[in-house]
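Please check this protein record:
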Amino acid sequence: MRKTYQDSGFILRQKMQMSLSSPRWSGVFPAVLTQMHADQSLNLEACAKHFEAQLLAGVSGLIVCGSLGENQCLQPEEKRAVLRCAVETANGRVPVLTGVAEMSTRTAVQYMHDSEKLGAAGFMIMPPMVYKSDPAETEHWFRTLAAATALPWMLYNNPVGYSTDVTPEMFAELADIENLTSIKESSANPRRITEIRNRVGDRYQLFTGVDDLMLECSILGIDGWVAGSGIAFPKENQRLWDLTRQGRWDEARALYRWAQPLMKLDTHLHFVQYIKLLCQETGLGQEWVREPRLPLEGRERDEVLTIIRAALAKRDQLAA
């Protein structure tokens, strides 16, 4: 039986000290949108504008082709085009990661190899899509993909969305994978932050992936935030993160209360449509999505617009 991270008998930092070549990612890494034309074709010019707005706000990295980036709806060549656009737009200012959301190990490995050639700084790896793997298969998937690259990567744990849960115990088992540097924890259970810390200490850089749990997770001790809805208001989003780093909790709470109705849009079945509509309202994108998703219409669209516009009407007061 394989020894676990804690069973090794060594002090954690001695046993699993990261190599000097592995970055310690931290800060805001927005999961950016993939912009479309009304006919569902890629709009790379709009993508570049969207990416640039995040960079100007001071983010620490970009993540393309995640769930919010409609990864699973893109053709293979489209994913590579979006990544190339992001790398060229960033131009070395921040690391660019790409989501890996494939149905087969072979396809995932090929995408990772191609992404390395295109200049990706690392990956955000999801569990296998469609097939719901058991714990042994899940661990095998992540180990196989980790062995296929020398680049660092972030494990995206989202049992709510993908029905595959990587538990704190499993993270202890995976801790010997040197290039697994970070976790995007999106179980919607803030307890997991403390549970992971108690199991493996500071072995991983912990990112929250649930927008409207960001403040709670910050108090518990995280290193970064894979932001969703905040891509529509990147300056305020970055300021909120900075306030938590500075321990200015009263100011952070006030800004968080303003943003919370917008952050809540990231926790719905139609989160891509909601956030694209939000970005359209703030001038940072268009609402067009790739089928099988359909644009919002009727009562649902009106209700979402009411939430968005009510919050944006108070936006100027934030600086007062």
